[in-house]
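Give me the fold.
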Amino acid sequence: MLQIKNNMDASLEYLKIFLKWLIIAIIVGLTGGVVGSAFHISVEFVTELRHLNKWLILFLPVGGVVIAVLYRLFKGSGRIDTNRVIESVRSEESVPLVMAPLIFVSTVITHLLGGSAGREGAALQLGGSLGYAFGKVFRMDENDKHIIVMSGMSAVFAAVFGTPVTAMFFALEVTSVGVMHYAGLVPCVISAFIASQAALNFGISPVSFVGVVTLEPMSVKLISGIIVLAVLCALVSTLFCFSIHKCEKFGSRFIPNKFLCAFLGGVVIILLTYTIGTTDYNGAGMDVISRAIIKGDARWSDFLFKILFTAITIAAGFKGGEIVPSFFIGSTFGCVMAPLLGVDPSLGAAIGFVAVFCGVVNCPVASFVLAIEVFGGDVAMPFAVVCAVSYMLSGYSSLYKSQKIVYSKLRDKLITY
């Protein structure tokens, strides 16, 4: 009888915790959905505005200085970046609420004026800062704050990209490679689902190419080509991370003045844009990604120029993120390499899309789920291979300096890296 009573008490305690997180996740999901939708709509609006008014890029240096001024005004809040959000999940690091409006406005400015950046950095910072703020409102202890930050991250990520399951696994997986924070499973999945539904109600379509990519019957030649392409994409992901970090170090060392660095970075992007003669590498570049995947059309130089533009943009202090650029780099690289390996260009673009993402964020589960949500379940098996190969061969490079590699990629061994 005592054992039964203890089991019942434990079950009631679990139910209370579940109901607590259910209510909190709904609140976080709704808030994240609304904020993420507003952010998505704003970025899409200014992107269209930039396409209609090419001359706006001439104000990119001024926009960079404005962003530098905004962040200087709140210098007392400490570092305001994605790395701080990641650190807050596994430490007592706080996430200031001011991070949300700062990254929102700064990312919109970056996209309006033609900086090469994505949206996920803003999504993670928006979600992390909102989650941490709710943690303070609900008077949570340090452990629960870690969970609600992940919940906020997954909510806004889901609203911005329309991939709720990917958002959930990404939030659980990205902070500590090799460790999944399962304690956040329920709040992350619920907040991601609620946020994605909220985004749909705002008329925001998810990122989806379901039915676009088709597979030929499996053969040794096709599988071999896919594996080789995944290996090459892993190397490209390493090149991308290396370029981002080296460019940031170069900027901070030789141009320590943030205002001057932002201004000069904007000037360089303008000169490159007019020299190359295309605006394909400004902004997120979703149209180029779509063209590579749907039409199997990309130029050899696309992935290299996108790496260059993004590295300069981020190093100069513009905001946004590097994940959508990784989609651009991967899809264009995969598209041009695929025919050489006996793979359809559209399939190659899809493989590159997923493989480079996996390589730069070190999240194989989230990457595999991304493949299913974006391209459909028909491609599950080959994309599982792609994610495994890219994860293993991308080494210990990462877009996020605060991401901690907990387990070795090569052996069943706990490491500190």
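The beta strands are 176-177, 404-405.
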